[in-house]
Specification:
- The chain is mainly α.
- The chain has 3 domains: 7-168, no CATH class; 182-260, Fumarase/aspartase (C-terminal domain) (Ribonucleotide Reductase Protein R1, domain 1); 268-312.
- It contains 13 helices and no strands.
- It has helices spanning 7-24, 50-64, 69-88, 102-119, 122-133, 143-170, 175-182, 189-199, 204-220, 226-238, 246-252, 255-260, 270-311.
- Helix 2 (50-64) runs parallel beside helix 4.
- The chain is extended, with a radius of gyration of 27 Å.
- The mean pLDDT is 88.
């Protein structure tokens, strides 16, 4: 049975990872924009929701992955072990290593949630969820404290997006320089592997191995042409050479081709980004129209309420 994918979850996972990279690399730690840091104690910032977002993603993915008890235990152990390894690098001082890291917590949460999913029915799961959420319910009146914090989080996120939008409006980019820099360091080498897999039917892993050998060969013998190096690398791994001209390889490895060939949904090709931008603009116009109508309806209702109150 083919593996099921939930595109919305994949997109949300990608956005969460991008946000994680942003808050972990905010530029200079001497002057970090406040929403990119954790709240010291009382408060809530966009940074504070990244870890809960990962837990949400893990939970949603559990029923989609059709887990077994053995697979759950194995995955939890692997995630926990990876967390220990990351916390221990590079010295692995077991006397001071931090056990309860981020990945370790995700592993424990995944283990408990997945085992509950496997061993209990929906009624038990509903009871567990209700008991877990009890401290956050109305019975302790915590919503009065939480709602302002959530509002402040969205307010700060809006400020951050507005700041970026203002900067982009007046930003100037040296496109030729960016294109030239993009070609440095074999950045576009993956497109050669994609071309071999797409056009020549080479297995994906083998195609990347050929590309890696081409780079290694060029470093050993920079005077040799890329066409000869590709023929040698492919002959070593496939038993027969794959031949492209130097002109073809230059085109395949060019940053412009790297961008233009990626026309799938969400890709960076100009026509796809133009389509996505237009779709976003249309959706924004629709949202603004709805907001205008809703605001007008609320204002009319408020005037009607005032008029009827005055008539009493």
């Amino acid at each position: 049975m083919p593996q099921r994918r939930l595109r919305s979850l994949d997109a949300f996972r990608g956005l969460t990872i991008a946000a994680m990279v942003l808050v972990n690399n905010p530029g200079t730690w001497a002057a970090v924009y406040a929403p990119l840091t954790h709240a010291r104690w009382h408060g809530l910032t966009p940074t504070d929701v990244i870890f809960p977002f990962f837990l949400f993603i893990v939970g949603v993915a559990i029923p989609l992955s059709r887990p077994t008890a053995g697979r759950v235990l194995r995955r939890a152990a692997v995630i926990f072990a990876l967390g220990i390894v990351l916390n221990g690098l590079p010295r692995f001082d077991w006397a001071t290593i931090r056990i309860p890291g981020v990945l370790q917590r995700i592993a424990v949460c995944y283990l408990i949630a997945a085992l509950l999913f496997l061993t209990t029915g929906w009624r038990t799961q509903a009871i567990v969820t209700a008991v877990h959420n009890t401290p956050f319910g109305d019975i302790v009146d915590t919503e009065d404290d939480l709602q302002p914090l959530v509002f402040a989080m969205f307010r700060d996120a809006t400020r951050a997006v507005t700041l970026v939008a203002a900067a982009m409006t007046t930003a100037e980019f040296d496109a030729p320089c960016l294109e030239a820099r993009a070609a440095d360091g074999w950045t576009t080498l993956t497109e050669l592997a994609d071309t071999l897999a797409r056009d020549e039917g080479v297995p994906f892993k083998t195609a990347h191995a050929i590309a890696a050998r081409l780079v290694a060969g060029r470093q050993r013998a920079p005077e040799r042409s890329l066409a000869d190096l590709l023929a040698d690398a492919s002959a070593e791994l496939l038993g027969a050479p794959i031949r492209y001209s130097d002109e073809d390889l230059a085109r395949i490895l060019s940053p412009r081709h790297f961008v233009e060939v990626r026309r799938t949904f969400g890709g960076p090709a100009p026509e796809e980004t133009a389509r996505a931008a237009q779709a976003s603009a249309d959706e924004l116009a629709s949202d603004r129209a709805w907001l205008t109508a809703a605001t007008g309806a609320l204002a009319a209702a408020e005037r009607m309420l005032a008029e009827r109150a005055a008539a009493l």
